Amino acid sequence: MTLNDDPHTARRARMEELRRAEQARQRRGRLVVISSVTAGVLAVAGLVGFGVYEFGKKDGGGSSDAKAQGSSDPNASIAGEKDWDAKKLTRNHVTTKVNYPMKPPVGGDHDQVWMNCGGNVYQKQVPDMNAVHSLEHGAVWVTYTDKASAADVKKLADKVSKTPYSLMSPYKDQSGAIMLSAWGKQVTVDGADDPRVNQFFTKYVQGPQTPEPGAACTGGLDEQ
């Protein structure tokens, strides 16, 4: 097997390409001219930050065996994960309120504007219809209730802030204290150190379930 045949290598290369594209969109939107030296520094810093996310080496807590179990195989099934048939999750842009059958929602009709999901950590609950659009673009959405510990919330916020195509927000009506959602996928975890957190991120950030891979996660709706 050659290097190009390695699915892990190909996935990392794809994520790095998407990250560079997101950074380019941000620069164009702000009309900021960055010198070649500064751009090189930012690129290196971005790749280092992405490397921390990809391998889940610094997300803290738990045994090394547990961490490896949660991130060693991106194709492995995730214990307790709920799945919805992607063919039945409609993708129309609508202006009327959608009553989703699950909380938080994992797909369906949604607002034409997505929530910014370039590692955004929101302090207030965000609109379902905008967050669903983010999932359509390949984001992972971390949500939590007031039953989640402050330590877990902080660790998860640190992880999200380092991860392109992710967002985090409180969600008072969900069944679990901490839940992770992607398009058509959802799991309730025991805490920030649960190995399924790394596994879910590795598998579903711009994962195969994504209806619109590579679509923007910036330039949308931000916290009001």
From TrEMBL:
DNA-binding as UniProt keyword: no
Residue ranges of the region described as Disordered: 1-27, 61-90
Entry keyword set: Membrane, Transmembrane, Transmembrane helix
Biased composition (Basic and acidic residues): 1-25
Transmembrane segments: 31-53
Domain of life: Bacteria
Coiled-coil portions: none
Stated name of the protein: Membrane protein
Organism name: Streptomyces xanthochromogenes
